[in-house]
Fold this sequence. Notes:
alpha/beta, TIM Barrel, 3-stranded parallel beta sheet, globular, disordered N terminus
Amino acid sequence: MTGWSRRRLLRTALSTALVPATAALSPMAPARAATGTWPFRRGVNAWPWFALTREFPAPRTDYAWPPFQSQRPVPTPDDLRRLRKTGLDFIRLPVDPGPFLAADAATRAKLLAMLDDAVAAVMDAYLGIIVNVQANGATHYWNPDRMVSSTAAPEFGAYRGLVGELAGRLERFAPGMVALEPVNEPPQSCNSNVWSNVQAALLTAARAAAATLPLLVTGGCGSMVSGLAALDPEPLTAFEPILFTFHFYEPYLFSHQGAPWMREPVYRALNNVPWPASAGSLERTLASVRKRMAQETETSEADKQAAYAETERVLKVYFDAGPDRWFIDRYLSQARDWADNHGIAPQRVIMGEFGALRTDARYVAAPNPDRARYISDVRQSAEASGFPWAFWDLFDGMGMMDDTTRALDPAMVEALGLRMPR
């Protein structure tokens, strides 16, 4: 592992350098892959359906039963049908592998049956589904470092076995409506041979168990655009049918303002950052940051002063750069250039995550009208490039549906170019 974190972006948050791919064009792929006739066009991530686990503390490495927190929001069949009526056509389902890998045979069979039921429920709502194996970095044992940091990682063999097992089970469902994404946001650097080896081993396991199931592949450095741009797709043609994926949250100063899970102290008090930058001012945002910091009682004054100085510095860069729709278009053009240079139809390149934290009872983050403008700009830019997309998220602070009432957010529905169901 290189220690890469795709959210450690303060130094490069506004970089717009374009690095077009230069590898040779890949050979012609099978007809379905070449034409891009896939059911995945407009989707939403359904976290935390198979996440928010109840693992026991160290030194134990297992989970309580059931392993998922009972209070987590899970979409009902009615929720799924309403999502279909908005115009969405697929679900990306993040699945924490930890409970599956820690379980004994009988418990694992129960978990796999639960996953089968979830896939069936999604398909019953006439939605496609991408099952994404998404390791939890906050888990003390079954985390990405132990599972996918390299092919020599302590639990890589177990993880690879699970990928193969999932592929075999998913291929039993209706062809063309289900796909498997073996890893979420690989931690290795953009051009890492370590990641290439990990991905190839996982794809080999999946393809051995499922000859025709579509598989999603990605670049390193957290599936960022720069990771995709560094990916050589030619060796991956052996695993067709395949799709490609990347994630987009740039600039993070906007999308992750106020996020308490961010490691950098700047983000926790960051709020009222406008989108586009011209919709506000440095002075107004800094005033909101100072107000937020004054409410923080668990941080020392010295730490607050250091965080404020860094916040002032990065926000000056943000407002001087003045990011707008042009910033997103230019950033995503790297992905389109990569696809064009390799003869890959853009319909095969899925923007698997994008979103921004909202201001609500739990979070103080982006002004909600600015958040809607940002989501709309990212979505329209992706569509202009021909990329399918999956919004992050269905629930929680970056969601489009209320965790409790299950009401859809009209602003998010509109920003995503969807319609409110009747």
